[in-house]
Amino acid sequence: MTGRLLRVRGTVLARLVLWSLLEAGQTFLLGYALARALDAGFLAGDTGTGLRWLAAGALGVVAGAVGTRRVYGVVADLVEPVRDRLVADVVARGVREGDRAALSGLTQQVELARDTLAGLVMVSRSFVFTAAGALAGLCALAPALLPVVLAPLLAGLALFAATLRPLARRQEAFLVADEALAGELGEVCPGLRDVTAAGAESRVAERVGDRVDAEFLAARSLARWSVLRVAALAVGGQLPLVLLLATAPWLLAHGVTTGALVGALAYVSQSLLPALQNLVHGLGTGGARLTVVLRRLRPRTAPPGTAPPTGFTAPLTPGTPADAPLALPDPRHRAGGPVRGAAPALSLAQVTFAYGPASTPVLDGLDLCVAEGGHLAVVGPSGIGKSTLASVAAGLLVPDRGEVRVYGHPVPGAGASALRLLIPQEAYVHSGTFAENLGLLRPDPVPEPELLAAAEEVGLTALLERCGGPSAPVRPAELSAGERQLIALTRAYLSRAPLALLDEATCHLDPAAEARAERAFAARPGSALVVVAHRISSAARAERILVMDGPRTAYGSHAELLRGCALYQDLAAPAGRPAAR
């Protein structure tokens, strides 16, 4: 593909060679003028000749700078057609195939390919013409100098060339592993709250750990081969200096002048070594990067019947129908007998939590008990800590003091993971069928009669029928926020977790739909329900209500709190009307 893209007019290449010859001339004059200034000038007692040769070297530097400046413009003429061809290919593919990656390819990867290719052309061209100028200068000074420098230079280039392909493969593998880890973390981190609530910590940790291990292995393999690249640089660029100094007595005894020896050292240290460094680092890094980018810009094909990967597959997170849902254990049984009746559904004992050591506790010595089959609503002003309480109960936040238990199991802990389920305000719906979305928290497909019954209980039936039934595809972008919440609620209703924590999970539903969904959860046999309520009507349906007011809390039924809690009276009062005292 690269060869096809680099078919450019011969005049551009001719201009590139022409201006590069000025750089080669600068390199030639660097050592030659220095040698002549010493031999014919300063060492011979002719200061004027020495200065004139140094001035000639300075003019060579000026000419080289002009050539370098012109080279940048020619390189732009060389790579811009490549960029234009890539843009045309990417746009054509995006229009023809509806490629979602086309925009990223156009805005990022095409520009990266253009810049990388320009850098590779610059370092490769610079090395070729710099080496030609330096070797020509060595021949002009004293042919005996040439094998001392050329032999290790060729050996270093050979070693570098031998490592170039395996090093590029390992660098590409490292880039792929690094991007895979970044992509995994980008999907996991925003959903940590729900991962913990769904009990998927171990599975997610295993997946992320695999990505970390893969990147570590790729980095270690890359580092091993990078040692050979450093060795190639040492052999080709630094060994000639050592050899010139080691053979200096022999060279001086066989007709090499002092000026010629100094000029040879200048060629190696000021021209060949920097040019080789740029070549090794530029071609070693940029070549792998260009290979990766061009590969991604090629049309991508997949075997028939396969779907593109969509990433993270944990519960309550976008996935594909092919993703395997998390197999939650049946919380109704454990070693030694059933969980039901063995302990309260949720208990908090002297729980204190603050968001920092110097922060005022959001929860301060809180005691709370929700019995099996209980229905608790949590109310209070915005920002008072209702969601914090839900997060502590779900194990997303660890209290500073106190103990949280779910059906007798400590939270956080593996035993409690499958026993409680946090349904947040953000409803996650993926692009599978309705049946696949609703059964995501079950280890096996949900029987259709059970699924339809759950949809009827929660209030999803109308949407389900309108879209074509359980086997109909779900198009998340076409659903309203309330419809997505109904899907998430029905999914949670079908799960086997006996404790449901609704953290404003019905905030996008109208009051009637909210009431229906909450009654469905409250009526699940043997289950318990905790609702962070944003409407007072939701609290009125609960058996017990927890009113949070900073360090103070009030607990009771709707009628009891209306009689004895001023804050609850204010919350329950109609908008614009003061509460009766």
How does this model look, in words?
It is a single chain. The protein has 581 residues and is α/β, with parallel strands linked by helices. It is 61% helix and 10% strand. The protein has helices at 2-5, 10-42, 47-97, 102-141, 145-188, 192-197, 201-246, 248-253, 258-297, 386-394, 414-417, 434-438, 448-458, 461-467, 481-494, 511-522, 536-541, 558-564, 566-572; strands at 333-334, 337-338, 346-353, 363-370, 375-379, 401-406, 409-410, 420-423, 499-503, 528-532, 544-549, 552-556. Strands 8-9-10-5-11-12 form a 6-stranded mixed beta sheet, sandwiched between helices. A hairpin with a 2-residue loop joins strand 1 and strand 2 (337-338). Helix 2 runs antiparallel to helix 9 (258-297), helix 4 (102-141) packs antiparallel against helix 9 and helix 13 (448-458) crosses helix 15. It is elongated.
Write down the overall geometry: elongated
Instruction: Classify the beta-strand content into a percent band.
Output: 5-15%
- How many β-strand stretches? 12
End-to-end Cα distance, whole Å, is: 81 Å
Q: What's the story with the biggest beta sheet? A: 6 strands, mixed
- Compute the average pLDDT: 79
Count of separate DSSP helical elements? 19
Strand pairing plus helix content: what structural class? Answer: alpha/beta
Biggest sheet, strands in spatial order?
8-9-10-5-11-12
